Amino acid sequence: MQSMRRKPVTVLTAAAAVAALALVGACSSGGSGGGSSTASSGTYTWWDPYPQHDKNSDWEQRAQRCGEDAGVTIQRTAYDTTALTNQALLSAQEGTSPDIILLDNPAVSTLADTGMLTTTEELGLDTSEIDENLLAAGVVDGETYGVPIGANTLALYYNKAVLDAAGVDPSTLTDWDSLTAALQAVTDSGKKGITFAGIGTEEGSFQFLPWFWGAGADLTDLDSPEAVQALELWTGWVDAGYAPNSVIQNSQNTTWEEFLTGDFGFVENGTWQVNSAAEAGFETGVIQLPAMDGGVAPAPTGGEFIVAPVQQDTDRYDVTRQIVECMTTPEGFVDTANTFAYYIPPTEAGQEALLAEKPELETWVEAVRSAKGRTSDNLGTDYPMISEALWTAVQNALSGAQTPQDALAAAQTEAETATS
Amino acid sequence: MTTLPTAVGTRQSAGGSAGRAPAAPSGPRRRRGPNASQWAAVGFAAPLLVYLVVFYAYPLWRNIDLSLHDYTIRAFVQGDPEFVGLDNFADVFSSPLFGTALWNTAVFTLVSIAFQFTIGLALAVFFRTSFRLSGVLRALFLVPWLLPLIVSSSTWAWMLNSDNGIVNSVLGAFGIGQINWLTSPDTALLAVTIANIWLGIPFNLVILYSGLQNIPGDVYEAASLDGASAWRQFRSITLPLLRPVSAITILLGLIYTLKVVDVIWIMTTGGPANASTTFAVWSYREAFGTGQPDFSPAAAVGNILILVALVFGFLHLQLQRRQEAS
Amino acid sequence: MTSSRPWWKTALGVLFTAVMLFPVYWMANVSLTRTGDLRSDPPHWFPWNPTLEGYRAVIAQQLPALGTSMLVGLGCVVLTVLIAAPAGYSIALLRLRGRGPLNFLLLVAQMIPAVVMAMGFYAIYVRLGLLNTIPGLIVADSTVAVPFGVLLYTAFMSGIPRELLQAARVDGAGTWRTFTSIVLPISRNSTVTVSLFAFLWAWSDFIFASTLNRNGDLIPITLGIYHYIGNNTTQWNAIMATAVVASVPAAVLLVLAQRYVAAGVTAGAVKD
To answer: Which of 374-413 (A) contact C at CB < 8 A?
Structure first.
């Protein structure tokens, strides 16, 4: 009886102790917190989508050095890609935007549309050196809202041993027919042909676009015969068993894991896997994604832009510009490329500097030069809606819910309603 | 132990009429008007009331505000949205997705609850009397809850993968061909429901087990002395005495299941062909699933969900009243 | 206790647990698997060629985050119980006026999407300077558990025999004494249950932490996981290893809590 009475009291005491502890923890962490950019002028806030690089990483050091050169301290916060856009909107609404954001390129036009970003002109940045196809994602109605810190894109990795066993010579794969024939040869040899990401998110559209554009289709006309041919190419591969059924839910990361098992002939993947490909347990190679009737298909550009949100205190722009410039010198670009292993510099000087260090990236530099921004063609903020319609159609067709023709027709209707 | 019979007697009447007992004192008290005990009641509830006002009023208002305006992201940042009344709701109701989402939500929720509750109750009864290792095993049952949803959902997606998933691999050993769990419109909803049932079992087990513990063991002992079978005991003791707790478990389960996004989103993103799109997923997709956040329709769908939950809450209240009255 | 049953019951219990925990086993399996073997077809039942790469990364990087999560979880438990227990007492036993509408409000409160709640808290915390603080996160996380706690306490407390309360009143105990010396001890089970869920919800919260607590040096484990999710690459073995490592202290806590429930039951039996 007594012991029973006493126990709750012990619990309460313990509870009080914990509460006190929590408060202590709060006080000690409160000092270093305060994400608002207006907190102190000597601190510049910086958000990026690289949570894999922590406080002790080279990337953090790099950002800090650029801050030191401009005479300020940088407070860097890493978000995952989806959370970053949301947080940027939320902070803009509350007037607490950071000084610098590194932002996935299709999101630039979306944020620019809200009026929360400064133009490069306001900031005093010179963008004349940047490759036009790469800068395009940051251009809305003739104004430029940021600078790419690097670019990446897609190509076809292959497993040399698998191709050799199937008697396929990768250098002969220059159009869809020869590629499909190669997939058949690989499948007949007992291996799996190709894997790609058809997931119902932006990644799905990103992976489908090289085939879509490679057929000559246009994002403003989703159900053109060319578009249908591109989708039929994918559904044909899945139906014939050249590609596994799991492509419907595959993210790009999953496709890479599948490729690393050594069972697949090809995988559609990006610059960011260059290091991993070199470390794979088998010999790999890369070819450009072929267009339908031969030649190189334009692949979409990926990669982040460095943007500067609007501040109440416009005096801050001067230092912000210095930080951005520090990140975008040719040496800076090469530094970034080395940090991430997947960023091709967006300027010719930068590309040459990178190739001097790593000539093996030639294929990728070529791919980036012929790549195309997803929001270009002045699609801007219409792109996210079109893209959603597109990946939905891809999912519907791959899962057999609709024929490619019907799926794309529905997508076109949907896109028209959404963007009108 | 000699006092057992009387103890059972009082307990049984106390427990069995858990509803009747409170009704009795409330009668005279109500007539007396506000009195000391009402003030005490308010005093004890005060922290909660303050808490609700401070932390919920604004978000609730915000959710309604979002659904009645056209918040483009520009308007969201600039704070100058156009008032559109019920247009967002009209759009939602007339969307071709509405019927699909309604059906999916109903199936997902009801099937999840039915299985979670039944399995949870069965396990709670199983664990009621302690046996060797029972404490440890019961604790282990909660481990799924310790995992971040991104991990448990990804693990399920992994196991249900069409080509290299363990589930198909096992089924294949029994001669069952490849089932495209997550990639076929016919099975995607089933697949996410299975994963969600798994996630919900610990919740039901814990609450129901806790409810069983509040039923005095001597009631059962008396019943088994009377020669009642295990099934009779379950029917005539466990179920009735557990009714208030069961009701709240089911109600809360309903609410939490209606809200589920993570599991479905990570496993199928609501696809393929919207086969696993529920209202909650729809709302999430409008707001965050695309590059173009669309908060107003998302909030409208969210508010419809609140209304659905209110209907169930109302039913619960009616049930409670009826129970109190009887 | 009856001693004829334990054996088959234990065997059955182990079997059930094994089935239930299979996905957890699978997670542990993946945490030890090399990236190249992750998607092998057919899948490997055991990590044939195990790697501790994931665990090395976690031990090196995630231990402070575990501490933070623990602190937030416990803080959330305390806050939730402090608010929910008296409220449950008031609604269930003191028959608070307007408890019907209040119950309704609690239901509505739980239906507000977490994201909207997070936006609301962001707006409030920006003004109060509570962003990136542990108490801020504790309060935000508690909003998941408080309505639940109140409803659960209400459901359980309404089952408390009136005779006990009346006896206390006859003995001259006031409402406060009745609460602390009768209602709370009897409700020990409910308290453990509510605490358990308050802890678990805080432990697994992602949205609040992501919106409100990104910047601080003390980030919880759910954000720590994102250390292994790059914008194009995902390190699965490290993610799963984080989940395994993170579930160990929490599992220990659970076993202890279960012991406590068992103790409470025995004490309750003695009491009468």
So the answer is: none
Determine contact, residues A52/C228, Cβ cutoff 8 Å. yes
Taking alpha carbons only, the member of A198, A155, A204, A162 closest to residue A183 is A162
For A125, the 3-state DSSP assignment is coil
Domain A11-151+304-369 and domain A154-299+379-419, same fold? Reply is yes
Inter-chain CB proximity C243 and B148 less than 8 Å = yes
C202 contacts: CB under 8 Å, gap ≥ 6: C69, C72, C73, C75, C76, C77, C138, C141, C142, C144, C145
Report the complex ipTM. Answer: 0.83
Do the beta carbons of residue C216 and residue C129 sit within 8 Å? no
Q: Are the beta carbons of A36 and C126 separated by less than 8 Å?
A: yes
CA angle, residues B16, B21, B22, in degrees to nearest 5: 130
Instruction: Find residues 32-71 of chain A whose CB sits inside 8 Å of chain C.
Output: 32-36, 49-52, 54
C148–B252 CB contact, under 8 Å: yes
Residue C228 burial class via C-beta count within 10 angstroms: exposed 0-12, middle 13-18, buried 19 and up: buried
Picking from A30, A90, A261, the nearest residue to C133 by CB comes out as: A30
The tens digit of pLDDT for each residue in C23-79 reads: 999 999 999 988 888 888 888 888 878 888 889 888 888 888 888 998 999 999 999
Q: Determine which helix (DSSP H) or strand (DSSP E) holds A76, and give its type and residue range.
A: strand A73-78
Would you call A246 and B164 a contact, using CB atoms and an 8 Å cutoff? yes
Per the CB < 8 Å rule, is A253 touching C270?
A: no
Our CA angle for A139, A141, A143, nearest 5°, is 50
What are the residue boundaries of the structural domains of chain C, listed by start?
1-51, 62-271
Interaxial angle between packed helices B20-32 and B295-325, expressed in degrees from 0 to 180 and rounded to the nearest 10: 100
Contact in structure between B179 and B171 (CB atoms under 8 Å) = yes
Inform me whether the pLDDT recorded for A24 exceeds 60: no
**Residue pLDDT, tens place only, B278-315:** 999 999 888 887 778 888 998 999 899 888 888 888 88
Mutation pick from C122, C196, C232 vs chain A, by most beta carbons of A within 10 Å, is: C232
Question: Could you tell me how many CB contacts below 8 A there are between chain A and chain B?
Answer: 99
Touching check for B299 and chain C: CB below 8 Å? yes
**Does the beta-carbon distance from A89 to B73 stay under 8 Å?**
yes
The CATH number assigned to the domain with range A154-299+379-419 reads 3.40.190.10
**Domain extents for chain A?**
11-151+304-369, 154-299+379-419
CA pair distance C34, A84, nearest whole angstrom: 30
Among partner residues B79, B271, B292, which is closest to A93 by beta-carbon distance?
A: B79
Number of Cβ within a 10 Å radius of residue A369: 16
Contacting residues for A45 by C-beta, under 8 A, at least 6 apart: A35, A36, A37, A74, A75, A76, A77, A98, A99, A100
- Which residue of chain B has the CA closest to A402? B273
Per-residue tokens: A407: 């799926």
Pairing verdict, β A100-104 and A43-48? parallel
Separation CA B133–CA B126 (nearest Å) = 13
* A196–chain C Cβ distance below 8 A for any pair: no
Cα dihedral: A201, A207, A210, A216 (round 10): -40
Residues of A in contact with C231 (CB under 8 A): 49-50, 80-81, 104, 304
Residue B175: how many other CB atoms lie within 10 Å: 6
Instruction: Provide CATH code, domain C62-271.
Output: 1.10.3720.10
A21/C71 Cβ within 8 A: yes
A110 interfaces chain C, CB cutoff of 8 Å: no
CB contact under 8 A, B272 and A114: no
Query: pTM for this one?
Result: 0.85
Three-state DSSP class for residue A262: coil
Q: How far apart are CA B165 and CA A246, in angstroms?
A: 10
Domain covering A11-151+304-369 assigned CATH 3.40.190.10 in the classification: yes
